[in-house]
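Question thread 4412

I'm putting together a teaching handout and wanted feedback from people who do this every day. The idea is simple: show students a protein as raw sequence, then show them the structure tokens that encode its fold, then repeat with a second protein so they can compare. Below is the first pair exactly as I plan to print it.
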Amino acid sequence: MKKILIVEGNLREENQNFSTSGIQTHTQSLQDSLANFTNELDMDVVNPSSDEDIDTKAKELNKYDGLIWGGSSLNIYNDTPEIRRQIQFMKECQKKVKNILAICWGMQVAVTAAGGVVKKSSNGAHIGIANQLIINEQGIKHPLYSGKKNNFNTPAFNFDEVATLPENGVCLASNKINKVQSMYFKINNNNVWGLQYHPEITYQKMIQLIKFRKDRLIETRKVFANHDQVDEHISFIEKEISISDNQQRMIELKNWLNSF
């Protein structure tokens, strides 16, 4: 049985907001998605921003076969104490855990901890969906994309992007919004697979998140001009649900589990 550590990227307060609104936390979504492939996982969960004993937990990282670091509503360049705690914990993970899958915020933390750079995206945001991801030649050869159809759409929710890869980092897929939609690098002889999108989150949950964040998306993020535009975008995602294949959507998770 593989022993997996799941790292929750959201602050405890944000997860409480999710729960109050009837939305799964990202950790719960990940656990549900992994269960589609196997029940033979021994999983622990940590929250580097909120767990008071995180330094003790960092000393026990060698016992894990793999680690999955999920999404968050944070922006890494804001440089808060909570974000610094996550970066420091990621540095410890990169020393001690052989196999790391870093998803969206997780990839941004992994890149930053390894010396790369993350900035606000210059080409806009992904709100619930990313379109027309193209796997490049390096990605086609990489086990991350074994069995994955090229030129795919996927759940995604991000405003930031990897601007500079870490040393030895290799981009595996891109689209018109983010040049680095997925990547791979080795650090301290450990493997880091990174995804800017969310194979572990359903489109249905993405719609919940859009509704939950509707006012922020209009007034603060200024992604939409009004509620009608939000509703139109939700309708677009609902059409994607009718044609999407859940096994294809989550195949990156399956491939990562099969890689060690």
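The second pair follows. I'd like the answer to focus on this one:
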Amino acid sequence: MRVMAIGGNPDDIEFMCGGTLLRCKERGDDITMCVSTNGSQGHYIIGSPHLSNIRKREARQSALVAGAEIILLDLPDAGPYPEPWQRDLYVEAIRSANPDMILTHYPTDYMTDHYYTSQNVLDASFWCAVPQYYTQSLGTSVVPAVFFWDTLGGLGGFQPTEWVDVSDVWDKKVEMLLCHQSQALWLKEHDDIDYVEFMATAARFRGLQCGVKYAEAFTALMRWPRVKPYRMLP
């Protein structure tokens, strides 16, 4: 199977579904990580042009750890919007990966880069299969299934319907996240947030719900023609 994760900012994928991607890789899936923005606003001190280069490099390092292909749309932070020209970017990205399943943000997550990415993914993941919607690549043969990952802190109305045990790949998930050192240091110094502990707290809570040490939680987009009569998550 081909699995694609599409996040708003560098590090979102690692934080919210990195373990699931690793589990997919273990079972033989092809995995692709797509990042909407270049992280240009993610620091108080480092200027945007230099920071965006750092964060794109960190995203590539994380994908290398996971054994994933990576697509960087390179929009600026606060940049994703549900506009036709941006929909084209997402359509082309999805067509190039040709996924059976897409993982992305919940539509009511806490900030614009997340919920507009979600909206663009929902729109593009339908139009990617329409042959006369033209981008550089040909249309896909199917409309992919979409699963929304957890919100930060589990708020915003998110209620999981599926869980993935990521206990056995936890250390590698942490390794992926820590590729984003610009964010790990910034969050610790300026917000007193321990990047890894924050992620672990959320994963332990979801693990408690399903009887494992660490889990990631999802809910499926229940719209035709995306529902499948079998489990797609690992």
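Top answer:
Good format. For the second protein you could add a caption like this: The chain has one domain: 2-220. Residues 48-66 form the longest helix (19 residues).
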